């Protein structure tokens, strides 16, 4: 393992490597599990992606829209709050949809996948 790695063990329900095995080794550790810090879960993205797509009357979900969602989620963690145990916002943060939806809608317009009215 590299010195101070960032480890995203995404297999569920059992991550490829347990956080306890990375104690003192990983700079950042994240899993798909809710019982560890930094839960990476698609529930963060789906509501905002769908709200943005519906608001824009998108006919498709593009890579640009997914990237816009990822950036909006990443930017929702402030520099002041960012720390190894908090690189991903909580799945219970209601502001995530409010940030993701307009970013996704704008990307749909940019990507030209909105239905003409």
UniProtKB/TrEMBL annotation:
Keyword Lipid metabolism: no
Signal peptide: none
Keyword tags: Oxidoreductase
GO molecular function, one term: NAD binding
Entries under Pfam families matching the protein: Malic_M
InterPro entries named in the record: Malate_Decarboxylase (IPR051674), Malic_NAD-bd (IPR012302), NAD(P)-bd_dom_sf (IPR036291)
SUPFAM superfamilies with a match to the protein in the record: NAD(P)-binding Rossmann-fold domains (SSF51735)
Domain Malic enzyme NAD-binding: 1-109
SMART domains the UniProt entry points to: Malic_M
Lineage: unclassified sequences, metagenomes, ecological metagenomes
Protein name: Unannotated protein
């Amino acid at each position: 393992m590299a010195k101070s790695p960032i480890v995203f063990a995404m297999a569920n329900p059992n991550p490829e490597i347990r956080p306890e095995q990375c104690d003192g080794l990983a700079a950042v550790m994240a899993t798909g599990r809710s019982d560890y810090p930094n839960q990476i879960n698609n529930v963060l993205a789906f509501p905002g992606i769908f709200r943005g797509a519906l608001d824009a009357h998108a006919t498709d979900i593009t890579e640009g829209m997914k990237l816009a969602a990822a950036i909006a989620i990443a930017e929702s963690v402030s520099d002041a709050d960012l720390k190894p145990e908090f690189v991903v916002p909580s799945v219970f943060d209601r502001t995530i949809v409010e940030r993701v939806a307009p970013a996704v809608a704008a990307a749909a317009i940019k990507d030209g996948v909105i239905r003409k009215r």
